[in-house]
Amino acid sequence: MHNNLKIKFCGMSLDSPIVLLSGCVGFGEEYTRINGFSNTDVGAICLKGTTLEPRFGNIPHRICETPEGMINAIGLQNPGADAVINEIMPNLDKTETRFIINISGSSVEEYGEIAKRFDNTDIDAIEINISCPNVKEGGVAFGNDPDMSYRVVELCRKNTSKPIITKLSPNQTDIGNSAQHCIDAGTDGLAVINTLMGMGINTVTRKPIIGNNQGGLSGPAIKPIALLKVHQVYQVSKHHNVPIIGQGGIMTANDAIEFIIAGAATVGVGTALFYDPLVCPKINDGISQYLIDNHLNSIDELVGTLELNTAVSQCDTSTK
């Protein structure tokens, strides 16, 4: 691994800025079956979304391909927190990389209970997926309501001493305000962004392709949106030294570098693995070479160096 790629993130020492994203690599073992793939090529792995009790997930179809991306609605299929702790985690090779558990819940209390259970394990950090619907509050997604987001993060913070990373939803009006609420509640890091909601339609049956009718859009199609959201969140998080995992359509080293310039300290790779399972070493090499070419000693020196254009016209939002 290149020495100039080492970075500190939420108290963790990472050998690479790449974080493999939750839902794309199962529980850390799926891609290790591919010849040439190694978990040592990434700084951390976010394990599959885990709920308190086992979940079977949504009815099929759960995935459909779209131009420059894919829609998924897996429905958080997982064996439950206790099974992950007792059966899966003991088999993870902690010498290869860092492991982050991604947790989801249908109530504030469920999030808090899962955080408490993982607090007693050797997991490196906890990522909170606040894009789940709050069943008790009429199904509104926690992440689309800053006050609900605050309550979830606050309770998790009380229940664990592990680093907490909160995954922000782009499906809201003011992501900066949401980030501020999560920071005030005690999050150590932010993941920006989760998937955008989308739909695909079968023109023969005239029904949605996804069994759940709608799902999360990921891949290169969402990259411009993700970049803007990272920039917006960084304007808030930089004042509190809260680092960002920038994610959303990263396929190349240049994509990753754009996110770092926008304000991300680390970069999330997910959908790209479906295109090229061996993409991570290429991204590492590209970032390292960029740092060398620009006389930078570390990623820290590149984070948030975006210089906005100053001569913006009054019609800057026009399509003319």
What features would you describe in this structure?
- The mean pLDDT is 94.
- It contains eight helices and 16 strands.
- 47% of the residues are buried.
- It has 320 residues and is of the alpha/beta class.
- The protein is 28% helix and 18% strand.
- The strands form four sheets. Strands 3-4-7-8-9-10-15-16 form an eight-stranded parallel barrel, surrounded by six helices.
Properties at a glance:
alpha/beta, 320 residues, globular, 8 helices
Strand content: 15-25%
Give me the strand/helix succession. EEEEEEHEHEHEHEEEEEHEHEHH
Mean pLDDT over all positions:
94
Q: Tally the helices: what do you get?
A: 8
Q: How is the biggest beta sheet arranged?
A: 8 strands, parallel, barrel
What is this structure, in a nutshell?
The protein is an alpha/beta fold and 320 residues long. It is 28% helix and 18% strand. It has eight helices and 16 strands.
